[in-house]
């Protein structure tokens, strides 16, 4: 876990996509929420996440590997 500027522990960015990280934050917030209204809003946000458009895949210009942008950005490129 790492600390953000809000001092909320978050998962390391290496293993999660942006979508997974968003879901993690919303699920964590729902688990700690006390207000029924807040819980309802967080459940709505989690439901809405399921309908987000898919993240387009990108191709590494050096090796041709295809994947999510955040994963291609950090992959171990093996140039052909």
Name the shape in a single word: elongated
What share of the residues lie within helices? Answer: 40-55%
Query: Rg from C-alpha positions?
Result: 16 Å
Classification by helices and strands = mainly alpha
Main sheet?
A: 2 strands, antiparallel
The average pLDDT is: 83
- Helix count equals 3
Question: How many strand units?
Answer: 4
| Parts with pLDDT < 50 across at least 5 consecutive residues | none
* Terminal residue distance: 35 Å
> Per DSSP, what share of the residues sits in E-state strands of 2 or more residues?
5-15%
Strand order in the largest sheet: 1-2
Explained architecture:
The protein is 41% helix and 10% strand. The chain has helices at 18-32, 36-49, 69-72; strands spanning 2-3, 9-10, 58-59, 66-67. With 80 residues, it is mainly alpha-helical. Helix 1 runs antiparallel to helix 2 (36-49). The strands form two sheets. It has a two-stranded antiparallel sheet. It has a two-stranded antiparallel sheet with strand order 3-4. The protein has a domain at 2-54. The chain has three helices and four strands; from the N terminus they run E-E-H-H-E-E-H. Residues 1-20 are annotated as: Disordered. Residues 7-16 have a biased composition (Polar residues).
């Amino acid at each position: 876990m790492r600390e953000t500027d809000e001092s909320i522990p978050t998962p390391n960015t290496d293993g999660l996509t942006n979508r997974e990280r968003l879901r993690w934050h919303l699920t964590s917030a729902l688990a700690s929420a006390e207000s029924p209204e807040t819980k309802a809003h967080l459940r709505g946000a989690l439901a809405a996440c399921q309908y987000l458009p898919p993240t387009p895949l990108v191709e590494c210009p050096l090796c041709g590997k295809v994947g999510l942008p955040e994963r291609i950005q950090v992959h171990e490129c093996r140039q052909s």
